Amino acid sequence: MRRALLAALAFAAPAAAQPSAPTAETIVVTGRSLPTPAGAAAYGTTLIDRGRLTGEASGRLENALRDVAGFQLFRRSDSRAANPTSQGATLRALGGNASSRALVLLDGVPQLDPFAGWVAWPSLSPERLSAARVTRGGGAGAFGAGAVAGTIELFSADADELRPFASLSYGSRESVAAAAGGGARLGDGFVTATARYDESDGYYLVPERQRGAVDVPADYRSWSVALRAVTAVADDVELQASSQAFDDARRRGQVGAESGSRGADASVRLIGRGDLPFEALAYVQARRFTSGFRATAADRSSSTPSLDQYNTPSTGLGGKIELRPDIGAAHTLQIGADVRAQDGRTRERFRFQVDRFTRLREAGGRSMTAGFYVEDSWTPSDAWTLTGGVRLDRWSISDGFLDEVDAQTGAPTLSQAVADRDGWRPTARAGAVYRPTPAIDLRTAAYAGFRLPTLNELYRPFRVGADATAANPGLDLERLRGVEAGIDFRPLNTLSFGLTAYWNELEDAISNVSLGEGPGTFPQVGFVSGTFRERRNVDAIRVRGIEATGSLGYGDWRLRGAYAFADARVRASGRAAALDGRRPAQTPKHQASGTLGWARDAVSADVTARYAGKQAEDDLGVRQLPDAFTVDAGAELRLTRSLTLQARAENLFDEQVVAGISGTGLLDLGTPRTLWIGLRIGGR
Length: 684
Prior knowledge:
Elements: H1 2-17, E1 45-49, H2 50-55, H3 61-64, E2 72-73, E3 89-90, E4 102-106, E5 109-110, E6 129-136, E7 150-156, E8 165-171, E9 175-186, E10 189-200, E11 220-234, E12 237-251, E13 258-272, E14 278-296, E15 303-323, E16 331-353, E17 356-378, E18 384-406, E19 412-417, E20 421-437, E21 440-451, H4 455-459, E22 462-464, E23 467-470, E24 478-492, E25 495-507, E26 510-517, E27 520-522, E28 526-528, E29 531-537, E30 540-554, E31 557-571, E32 590-600, E33 603-612, E34 615-616, E35 624-625, E36 628-638, E37 643-650, E38 658-661, E39 667-669, E40 674-682
Parallel strand pairs: 4-7, 23-29
Antiparallel strand pairs: 1-6, 2-3, 4-5, 6-7, 8-9, 8-40, 9-10, 10-11, 11-12, 12-13, 13-14, 14-15, 15-16, 16-17, 17-18, 18-19, 18-20, 20-21, 21-24, 22-23, 24-25, 25-30, 26-29, 27-28, 30-31, 31-32, 32-33, 33-36, 34-35, 36-37, 37-40, 38-39
């Protein structure tokens, strides 16, 4: 494989070194969506440019997003080591379980897994992107039904940004990262293509003092490819067609604890920029996930299979249409409708006895949201921008089931059919921006949003070590309401500062609630030696917080930073009353990041520091993860016009980052010190 990669880079080098000359034809397409309305400035927003996305030391998109105040995944580990099902994204401490509470979009297409709501980060290589925009707060707008914590918008690079390139890096523990791609203008349009490959022998997830004979490094292998074409189909109308495919395989530190995810997505979008601007989008997602789990002896000398999730197919379908009728130069009116449908099921083998699995399980269902929205941005003067929008969604949860049978006889041992549900849900948001001077924006906003439970939360029980969690087909919708106020200050072109204070309440928040301790037998999951939990709606998660951002440029130097403070508390009663007043699981009170960069002529370097405060591993706060402070660094030296030498370091001081603690006190570790050296040919 590595010889093939080197050969591919050698083949790509001539094209990368001598990009084709631009044609004299007029370029009539952009590859972008319709312009962002001025009212978007009323909400707390952070933009990450292409240079930062592709320059992050780990080379991972999810780690570049950690620059954003309040962004987090459910686990501190990134997508190279964590189980994919723990890679949901959230904002503003609205976590508590592994599903995404932030809506992730790529060129307007939702990227959440149709079954479980997590994000396939290995499929989203930074090299293919132009920028990422993170908007905190839920409410109206396209696909707003899933954006209770906010929206993470990813934008594909066009042919001018994606100049032909190839890169190859080699790192600690036999790690390899390779990428190639490019774009070309074709007539009045363009085409882009990217590919990426990653592999590593991995690191031990368990510290040496706790390690046993069953522990092996957490190796991984993944690849992704993406193709995008944009062309004019009529005056002021362009067609954007995109497709991607990916495969990701990893081992979670033990032989037999392997997982894999693969998928293929396609979308078509029409953008009209004439007298009646419009956008029409349709997309399809096809995904498949597998995962194996082990039961490990206390001394870690041996393990046996505990569950084999051998096939979890899922499909997502959706689309939207939006019109922007002209009602005056001071207004940007958006009228639109969208729909998302998810279908998925899990097929599993479980209850391992006498060298074989004795039970089979199949569970799944369908869900759908279809909404209509109207939103307007009004700029009555240079000093004021006002915005407001409403949505009305029809939602449904249908065809739910959980069936278990004896693996040998086929006799049913559990059969649970779930009644269909549906309803209507209105949401809204509004905001204002006041500019007393060109250097100051004062903003305020209020919003309401909701999220459907995922098919995974509704129907699939699961185990982690000695603990087990039951599904709950009766879960209600999560409903958010929030307010915020902030200031953006730009006294100089090279100096900016932003501060936002907010209050959010997520009613009926879905949490994993502890209901009993083993050893014992519990409904739906059978025998449990550790803690038994069930997914339940708690009364609410309430968060009060502050987010600060800043950037400074001085000569060859650049400094940017972010800080988030979140006082998050669970409000709970009934069987979940023990959670009342506690912080939600996996939510730190303090987060901070800062990057100092320097560039001159052919040399550049940067250092990034990140801090996450202590956080609870479990819902009751019994197991506390210590705070974590890491430092990354990177440097580039341009050897020739088209050849660049790169060096990067993750977790430079090899700090122990605890990403999880089991009920028996076993630690799960984040990425240790990882050093990289590499070459890039052509543009970034």
